[in-house]
Structure formats: structure tokens, C-alpha cells
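User: two proteins, same treatment. go.

Assistant:
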Amino acid sequence: MCDEKRTMLDDSSTRDKPMELIIGKKFKLPVWENIIRSMKEGEVAEFLCDTPHVIEYPQVSRSLRRIAAGQDPRDGQRHCCGGIAQLHDHSLGYPDLDALQKDPQPLIFVITLLKVEEPGSYRQDAWAMSDQEKLDAVPLLHQEGNHLFKEGNIPEAAAKYYEAIACLKSLQMKEQPGSPDWINLDTKITPLLLNYCQCKLLEGEYYQVLEHCTAILNKYSDNVKALFKRGRAHAAVWNAEDAQRDFARAVELDPSLAPLVAKELKKMEKLMSEKDEEDKARFRGIFK
């Protein structure tokens, strides 16, 4: 801000990735395009922008902060026109932005232009895509995730699956739950979510697996893959009875899984035995 302390409103350098600006498309202050076009790659520059050029900054900042938190910047705005959002009694959820919205002021932008990409070479985040762009991106993300998984790059594979799920979920939110279009999208989400759960199993994120597989089974109770993965997650967190129940149901639905389930049950039995011995050693003599 243009006060004596140059009060900081936002600093994208403290976030996981740099701020991204798509020239000529969505989510921007018009003045930013003029700024960027005057810069060279690798340049650092400071710009003082007068009040008329930054009236919309509180709204833009709110969206930036939501994106940094992994949220959809448009949540809560689907049924509001832009004008309503500018009313003085409307809260953006951030006191500093509320104050700036009520009392607009000139702002200073200090920008480092890290990289310039050619048109068509940049894949947008799901929130910035059109519906068709999201649909087109899903099979590509799925394929990239599978390739990374085969290479053993599990975290990156999980990220690809998650991104594809986000594209489909944002489309599904526009449909009536249970409608043919909603169900069609859900059938696309389920295999991606199972792939994501497989990654989380390998990463040891067992409670995430339990949560997602349970969500699948609440809708599709006979999904064998969800039962098997949830059984493995239950076994990993010592829920022996729940694991046995899921494994038994999986074998009932697909008898060919019997050898694999037997192997998992043997592994679980060994882990439970080791845990019992550890507990006995830990508490031995504690009451003497």
C-alpha cells in the first residue's frame, strides 16, 4: 500500500508456486496486462497504480488467496452478480481486503517476471478452464498419471489424478445429484479416485484411503477395488475386524482375489503379532 510503512497486502513469493497471469483471459486486473507487456523476462520492476486502476483488487486478492489455499476462487459467488460483491456491507472474508474495498487507495506492485510461455503451451488450473477444456484435460491427466505411476513417481502421479478429479468435480457441481449427467461424471471420477487411493496407500496416507474408498462404497457398495484398498488401509492402521470384513466381501464378489487376500491377511496377522509384542515390551513392569 502507499502508506509510510508500505503495508504488504499480498506476497506470492511466500507461496508454493508463482502467481500466474493469462494475458487476455479471465482473472486479472486490466492494469496488470499493461505492466507485464512493458517488462522483459527476468526483470524486476515496481509500479505505482492509481486508485481507478485497482478498484477490483480486493476481489482479485481474495481469489488469489483462495487459490493459494487450494480452494476454488469462485466458491460462494455462483449465484451473485459482480455488482453485489462490491457493496460496502459485503465481506470478502479478510479484514484487510474489506477495509481496502470500503476505502480504495493507490497500490504498488513489485513484480518479478520469471517466465513467459507461448500461447497453447500452458495448462491452466481447473478453476480457470472452460467446461470443454476440463473435459479435454481429463484423459490427458489420467494418461500422464499412469505414466508417472509406472515410472515410480508416486507423488506426481497422485497430483495428476487429483487434478483430473478436480476438473470433473467442478463440472459435477453444476449438475443435479443423481441425474444422468451427474452419474456419468461420477463414473469417470471413480477410477481416478481409486488410482489416487493406490498412490496414497503407497505413500502411507491410510486415513485418506479410508475416507475416499468409503465415499465410493457408499454409492457403489460392490466396488471390489474400493473394498480391497480399504481393507489394506484398515489393516495398516490396526483395524483388523474391518479389514477382514472388507477382504471377505471383496473375495465374495471376485473369487479370483482369494490368493491376494490370503497374502494380505497373512501380512496383517504378522503385523498384529509384532505390534502385540511391542506393546507387551512397552508396558512390561509398568505397574510394579
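Protein 2:
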Amino acid sequence: MKQNFPKLGIKLLCRQFGKTRHAYYDHQWRVQDLGLKDEIVLQHVLDIRKKQNRIGTLKLHYMLQEPLGQHGIKIGRDYLFDLMREHSLYIRNRKRKVFTTNSRHWMHKYNNLIKELVINHPEQVWVSDITYIQLRKQWGYLSLITDAYSKKIMGWAFRKDLSAQGCTDALEMAVADRKYPETKLIHHSDRGSQYCSKAYVDLLIRNRIAISMTENGDPYENAIAERVNGILKAEFDLYGPQTGLKETTRKIRENIQTYNQIRPHASCDYLTPEQAHHKQGELKKRWKPKKYKQEQSATCITESGIIDLRV
């Protein structure tokens, strides 16, 4: 009689609420399956986050489709957002600002050549920028050359100073890595003294690369370069005090390799930059402007504007 009591208790409870005992057990099975499903999803999320520990949830949703499909699991975007919040895996942006360029100098400044330009193939336009990374007791400065079409980082250099040498080293790496050396190429940057220096300009001229610069100091004129800086620092956890120069340089090298070869880019039809660099013609953009109401106004956040890790 004692062994049957739980079953009898469940039967009476189900009858009280107008449900069958089978419905009760079916619900328990679904809850158990759901818990297992969540566990599998979270395990794959953590596997991805080992290499890209600040990648946004929308890109995670895209990258999870194939591995979860092997388990016969399909999840929606909202489901993943809720699961990430529930397990404190949701990423929040951190905004910081340090000025890394000085445009108030005597050297010659060039016009903006890409203002109305339609970019439809790799190595048509390169964009350059410098961002800061904190070392153990000082700042380091990362110079980047990015292809505007494929978003591939073509060249980079990391130094303890803001001299033109870091920018020159990054440009030399980019030139050496060109896949289409006969293509007419424009180099676009801000008006920083590093990019106006004789050594840098001479290197561009020797390699028959046209020179373009922002005109009004507006960061949106060099939005792609700013965006790539934000991705590297936010998604690859380059904020906060790091180790010494050598160890941080190693980490940057690994992160750039992951960015170029593994991370899908929403502006390039979810291709990796390396894959997109072998394409021609317009690439479908997989992001949409996000609108947020703030009192009586609305703010749009886009891929080329304010950084939103969800896109």
C-alpha cells in the first residue's frame, strides 16, 4: 500500500485539475528533454566563447546552427537571448575613449576619395586606424589595416608608442599579403600625423596606392576601421590590464587569426573575412538597424555606427 501511495496521490491531483496522469508524466518528460537541450546549447556556447569570449548573441545563434543540427536541436533567436540572460552569459558593451591621433599638424592632408564610392570587390579600399590596449603598467597601441569590402585585417602592428613606425609596419604587412596586386587600391584613414608622415606617404606612393583621408573629423567617415577596432577589443576581451608587451602581442596575433578565419561577419553575408576576400560583387548585409525609444526620440544603432554586439 505504501508503494502505491505516490501514484494514487498523483492520480487524485490530476483528477482535481482535470488532467490525466499521462499528461503529468508527458510534461515531466518534456521538462527533462528541455533541460538536456539547454545543457547541449550552453556547452556549444562555451566552446565558442573559449576563443571568442565576447562574441554577440546574434552571431552565436548563427554559429550554433550547424553543431546543434547534429543533435537534432533547433532554437530561435529569442530563446537563445533568454537562455544567455538566465545563465549570466549576456554581453554588455563598455564605452571608453582615448585619442590616438593628432590631426592638428603642418603636414599635407589629402581629400576624401571614397565618399561616394561603391565598394564591390576586395582590395578596392583599405581603411586604417589606431586603437589603444592597456598593458600591465602602460598603454600599447595597435595599428590596423582592414579591407573595406571583406573586413579582413590585412596588416597590423602593436607597439608601446604612437610613432608612425607602427602604422608603417602594419602597411608593409598588408602590402605583402595582397591577393590582387594589380587592382587599383585606395588607402583611407583619418588625418593623424602618423598617416601624413613622409615615411608612410612614400610607402603608399611606391606601391601605387591612392591616398584618401577624412575631411571633417567625423568618425563615421572612417566607420569600418572604428568598427573593427571595437570588435577586436570587445569580443576578444582586449579591455582591461593585460600582461606585458610580448604576451599581449601573442594574444592579439591569435585573436586576429580567429577574427579573419572563424568569425562570421554580418556585413559580409555571414562569411568570414577570409572567405569574403575571395568574393566579387555586392555582399548581402545580414544586419538591420535597431531602434530604441529614449523618452520622445529614437536611436538607430547599425553595423557601421555605434557598436552593438547583438548584430
